[in-house]
Write a structure and sequence with these properties.
By secondary structure, the protein is α+β, with helices and mostly antiparallel strands. Helix content is 21%, strand content 28%. Strands 3-2-5-6 form a 4-stranded antiparallel sheet, with no helix packed on it. A 3-stranded mixed sheet has the order 4-1-7, with no helix packed on it. The longest helix has 29 residues, at 2-30.
Length: 137
Amino acid sequence: MYVFVGKLIRYLQFMKIKFLISTVFLLNSIGSFAQVVSGVVLDVDTKEGLFGATVVLKQNKSIGVLTDFDGNFEFKIPSKHRKFPVEVLFSYLGYESQTVWLAEDDMSKPLLIEMKSDCILIDTIMVKTVTSKAKDP
């Protein structure tokens, strides 16, 4: 009877150590998952979403997405590119590009990016034409 109880105690101690080691590895692996950056890109004047705006990591421009019809975006930053603060570049044709620095705390909140138009108004356009006639032989 005492031999059985001794083996049971050693087995439980072994399982306790195994559980603690497994928990440490599990908690460590949770931090290595890719973090998600999400939000919406809007026109500053009309407050409408910008379809097809480019959202990329400035450190590695191959990581990024285009916004959907409503200006929403979401992409994952792999753990090897996660050196905080992370610099994210927002650009769209006809609008001023914006750069946003994200700290680790900012990753859990959706971003609201408002972009300003980068158009130039022209008062006068002058068109000059030149015509020439071929001579008949």
